[in-house]
Write a structure and sequence with these properties.
The protein has about 500 residues and is α/β, with parallel strands linked by helices. It has 3 domains: about 180 residues, FAD/NAD(P)-binding domain, CATH 3.50.50.60; about 150 residues, Polyamine Oxidase, Chain A, domain 2 (Alpha-Beta Complex); about 90 residues, de novo design (two linked rop proteins). The chain has 14 helices and 25 strands. The strands form 7 sheets. A 7-stranded mixed β-sheet has the order 10-9-21-22-23-20-24. β21 and β22 form a beta hairpin. It starts with a helix and ends with a helix. The N terminus is likely disordered.
């Protein structure tokens, strides 16, 4: 995290900014200010869609070119009949039951992403809650507890209990006498007793927050707390802390959202509004500067076609931009060439919703310390018969996953399910692997570490050529960053048009 993201997060942590959605960004321009100006946008991911949509509203003569057969880029919901195509020609056809889907790329919308949610409101896209966390999900380490998983609620609350007990001993032993007054020490002890929770002797002996031996019921059936807690040294050896805290990240906190029926409802809403402005199956092969602007060359039905414009916004992944002939200055060419994208993947399976019926898991994520992780349980269509379960959402570089064949990947993924849900791994079928570093027209999930100097270069135009995409923002890997970058690029163009 750097720049805006680091500053924002630090100020939030210090209590200097409220944790609320930013107001939707917009282009500060008069209606009709783009009239008479031609703009070509390359790439119909959400950055390109947003740029073209806002430009059209301002009166620009816009053409949006997309190499693939759908809008949205990495905002894609896979369904029955869709084809996953890799750059090397490998193809997988999705054969899931009609009506089922999986968001193969973007999968959640934070409530603080105001620009994204602003477009959701503008297009009246029906939304539902994305259950990003559940205390019923599991944490598992092959080397701890005989490889058996712990419920997340038990790990989290036993961790709090043990730490509270240690702190209470330190307070009672005078360890904080220099820092706290007598009254403040009393308040801290009261806090730890509740936060733990601790008994009257200052001991943590489990709680109903963590685990029950018996649920309360009618008549004589009382609640019985399981006092067999996970030892603190076991929790530390298991290295579960990152999994315990993941939902505390400022952009992962509840409430999270998703469009009903699939995340691609967002790009399809833009596409509908753009109409004939959007040209699918039109891969760009060259972008050349001219004395008056740019000439963009692309293929339409296999035939080379040229279009001239005053400005061009490249919203392609930099992995694809560097593969075509582009008239860039040395600084931009160097930044594009050096850009390194991550190789995030998802493995999705169809199956009966055993996680709900047998394990009381309704959405959220289970994490494994070894093997494909996490398991991401669907938030859509809860209580229905079948669903799509993600078993593995991480980078291909982990555990040398990129060296495996598809059958080997699927076997490892099924193994992760079996370790968390014994006896249920074989119930899964019709697996699909989407590795974004292999995907045709993308070749990466999101940009990795990017030197500040190269980031600054890509955020400035190269003559009439401008750049957009989440890689041109400090909100990498989110739709919010892509939207903000597209709006910023158009703002710079419009300011130049206005001053001409």
């Amino acid at each position: 995290m750097s720049g805006y993201g680091a500053t924002f997060a630090t100020m939030q942590a210090l209590g200097l900014l409220p944790m609320k959605a930013e107001n939707p960004a917009y282009v500060r321009a008069e209606q009709g200010s783009g009239k008479g100006t031609k703009l070509v946008v390359v790439g119909a991911g959400v950055a390109g869609l947003c740029t073209a949509y806002e430009a059209k509203k301002l009166g620009y003569e816009v053409t949006l070119l997309e190499a693939g057969n759908r809008p949205g880029g990495r905002v894609w919901s896979g369904r029955n009949g869709d084809v996953v195509e890799f750059e090397d020609g490998t193809k997988q056809t999705i054969e899931w039951t009609k009506g089922l889907y999986q968001n193969m790329g973007a999968g959640r919308l934070p409530s603080i992403h105001g620009t994204t949610l602003g477009y959701v409101r503008q297009f009246n896209i029906p939304m539902e809650i994305e259950v990003n966390t559940s205390r019923s999900t599991f944490l598992q380490n092959d080397h701890i507890n005989g490889g058996k998983p712990y419920a997340q609620r038990k790990v989290i609350n036993d961790s709090r209990g043990h730490v509270s007990e240690l702190l209470s001993k330190a307070v009672a032993g005078g360890g904080f006498d220099q820092e706290f007054s007598t009254d403040d020490k009393k308040r801290l002890m009261d806090f730890l007793s509740y936060y733990g929770p601790l008994d009257k002797a200052g001991k943590y002996k489990g709680s109903d927050r963590a685990d029950l031996k018996q649920y309360p019921g009618a008549g004589p059936q009382d609640m019985i707390v399981n006092e067999d807690t996970i030892p603190l040294d076991t929790i530390l050896k298991a290295n579960f802390l990152g999994y315990e805290m993941y939902e505390e990240a400022w952009d992962w906190q509840a409430t999270m959202f998703q469009p009903k029926g699939g995340m691609d409802a967002i790009p399809y809403a833009f596409a509908k509004a753009l109409g004939p402005v959007l040209h699918l199956n039109s891969p760009v092969t060259a972008i050349a500067k001219t004395g008056k602007g740019v000439t963009v060359t692309y293929l339409k039905e296999g035939k080379e076609t040229h279009i001239t414009a005053d400005y061009c916004v490249s919203a392609m992944p930099l992995t694809i931009l560097r593969k075509i002939k582009v008239d860039l200055d040395p600084a931009h060419q160097d930044a594009v060439t050096k850009a390194s994208y991550r190789g995030s993947y998802k493995i999705a399976w169809e199956g009966p919703r055993f996680w709900e019926k047998d394990f009381n898991i309704y959405g959220g994520l289970s994490f494994l310390s070894q093997g494909p992780s996490p398991l991401w349980y669907p938030s859509a269509d809860i209580f229905s018969d079948r669903g799509i379960l993600v078993a593995g959402y991480q980078d291909e570089s982990i555990d040398r996953f990129q060296t495996m064949t598809l059958p080997q990947m699927f076997a490892r993924s099924r193994g992760s399910v079996e370790r968390l849900h014994p006896g249920h791994g074989d119930k899964l079928e019709k697996p699909i692997f989407v590795g974004w570093k292999r995907m045709k027209w993308y070749e990466g999930s999101w940009i990795g570490a990017q030197p500040a100097a190269e980031y600054d270069v890509m955020n400035q135009p190269d003559g009439p050529i401008y750049f957009a995409g989440d890689a041109m923002s400090h909100v990498v890997g989110w739709q919010e960053g892509a939207f903000l970058s597209g709006i910023r690029a158009l703002q710079m163009i419009n300011d130049k048009v206005k001053s001409a």
